[in-house]
Amino acid sequence: MASSSQEKVGFENIEAADSDHVGGATKGEAAVTADDFGFTPAEQRKIIHRVDRRLVLTVGAMYCISLMDRTNLGAANIAGMGVDLMLIENRYSIISLVFFVTYVIFQPPSTIIVRKIGPRIHLAVITILWGSVMIGMGFAKTWEQMTGLRVLLGFLEAGFFPSCVYLLSTWYTRFEVGKRNSVFYLVGCVASAFAGILAYGLMQMAGLAGLNGWRWIFIIEGIMTVLLGIAGYWLLVDFPDSKRKNWSFLGAKERDWVCARVNADRGDVKPQPFSLAKYLRAATDIKVWGYAMIFFNTTTVTYALAYFLPLILTENMGFSVGASQCLVAPPYAFAGIVMFGTGWAGDKYRLRGPIVAFNCLLCLMGLPLMGFASSAAVRYFGVFLVTAGANANVPAAMSYQANNIRGQWKRAFCSATFVSFGGIGGIAGSLVFRAQDKPGYKPGLYACIATTLLSLIIVGALSLEFRRLNKKADRGEMELECDADDTYEPGFRHTY
């Protein structure tokens, strides 16, 4: 049934809940109605659709190019980079993992910086700068130069993903964010699907201007990044509560309505004055580290696939270089379908933990097939399951943590630590498939299975804890999730 109270607050595509609580307020109280701002339900839906088009699609497109830029090493390697830069022994793994050192170290300050100077300047500038670094990678003469450029790339990209995760969480209610996170990451997934095909096309430019084909992969994709960064300055939006100029995207009354509905959902739309002690106090909540560990486990698998799938298809399954570049696309396209489907189901049925667990099960079915089946066709089918489960868990894990925290600065800290652990997962993912283990890469497969099992255990433990805390709150024994100012939102309940 579609409740009238939900129509009034404009919760797009959200079905009536069976629980006694909707968002941060009990049914029938503290909800912001359309009458308070004069918007009809149809006008409210149009406002949310405008936010979707302007925010989700813009950051999705920018993340798409970000993901391509950090994961195109595999395509470049089999396109001749390994020979030209003499990537013998562990040099390729070193080039892969040094990116994540600076990527992890410089993420925590990013969510503070983006709050202070605004997403438009912060995200556009770092995108233009890392695009310039990408172009420079196309002219690297030695593996040491490539390593240095990857360190710089990690420094510049460090601020992007946590800032996007944080920005998205400020515009939507808790049971709208699942689909939006899925679409945001889905665009990047589509990029991964076609990045191999694009790289294969750019390889055909070999000899142009005396440059090998792998160099053109970096140069052309770097130019695309710079252009998208310039466009991003004009297209990106600020935080809904910001007083900075927001171009003609939404009027003041429309922004106030967005803030009011988010505030009715969880009561933390406006940040408290920044305090380093209060910002870091979020670190004392063990649940924050549980979310981060789930993301570490997830990205260990996603980055392992991103960096080594072309090599696995070539060396383990016997496909040619051209075929391997193109065969990367179908599993990622399938992952996009699973990603959006699970995001939609999570929002509709107000589930988070079971969605993460389902995606883990897909990985646990796919990894043994991928590594141990006798037929190349069956192993390739396993790639579909692993790619879908691991990549769909990125937005699923984002939504899991976003639904279960309150307070802008705790949200900022959570986004930074969450994505930092994802970067550490990138380091692990770039090391699990070692050259000495080819063509079977068995130790890497065991590592991926272990991290996926650990995610299942953590989700189970968190869900049991959420259930316990919610029951205590229902009995009036406690309130849940205070913000940085030590205030609680009556009616807030954890989502499990």
TrEMBL record:
<dbReference type="GO" id="GO:0016020">
    <property type="term" value="C:membrane"/>
</dbReference>
<feature type="transmembrane region" description="Helical">
    <location>
        <begin position="288"/>
        <end position="309"/>
    </location>
</feature>
<feature type="transmembrane region" description="Helical">
    <location>
        <begin position="380"/>
        <end position="400"/>
    </location>
</feature>
<feature type="domain" description="Major facilitator superfamily (MFS) profile">
    <location>
        <begin position="55"/>
        <end position="467"/>
    </location>
</feature>
<feature type="transmembrane region" description="Helical">
    <location>
        <begin position="55"/>
        <end position="73"/>
    </location>
</feature>
<protein>
    <submittedName>
        <fullName>General substrate transporter</fullName>
    </submittedName>
</protein>
<dbReference type="Pfam" id="PF07690">
    <property type="entry name" value="MFS_1"/>
</dbReference>
<dbReference type="InterPro" id="IPR036259">
    <property type="entry name" value="MFS_trans_sf"/>
</dbReference>
<feature type="transmembrane region" description="Helical">
    <location>
        <begin position="121"/>
        <end position="140"/>
    </location>
</feature>
<feature type="transmembrane region" description="Helical">
    <location>
        <begin position="321"/>
        <end position="344"/>
    </location>
</feature>
<feature type="transmembrane region" description="Helical">
    <location>
        <begin position="152"/>
        <end position="171"/>
    </location>
</feature>
<feature type="transmembrane region" description="Helical">
    <location>
        <begin position="183"/>
        <end position="202"/>
    </location>
</feature>
<feature type="transmembrane region" description="Helical">
    <location>
        <begin position="214"/>
        <end position="236"/>
    </location>
</feature>
<keyword id="KW-1133">Transmembrane helix</keyword>
<dbReference type="InterPro" id="IPR011701">
    <property type="entry name" value="MFS"/>
</dbReference>
<keyword id="KW-0812">Transmembrane</keyword>
<keyword id="KW-0472">Membrane</keyword>
<feature type="transmembrane region" description="Helical">
    <location>
        <begin position="412"/>
        <end position="432"/>
    </location>
</feature>
<dbReference type="GO" id="GO:0022857">
    <property type="term" value="F:transmembrane transporter activity"/>
</dbReference>
<dbReference type="InterPro" id="IPR020846">
    <property type="entry name" value="MFS_dom"/>
</dbReference>
<feature type="transmembrane region" description="Helical">
    <location>
        <begin position="444"/>
        <end position="464"/>
    </location>
</feature>
<feature type="transmembrane region" description="Helical">
    <location>
        <begin position="93"/>
        <end position="114"/>
    </location>
</feature>
<feature type="transmembrane region" description="Helical">
    <location>
        <begin position="356"/>
        <end position="374"/>
    </location>
</feature>
<keyword id="KW-0813">Transport</keyword>
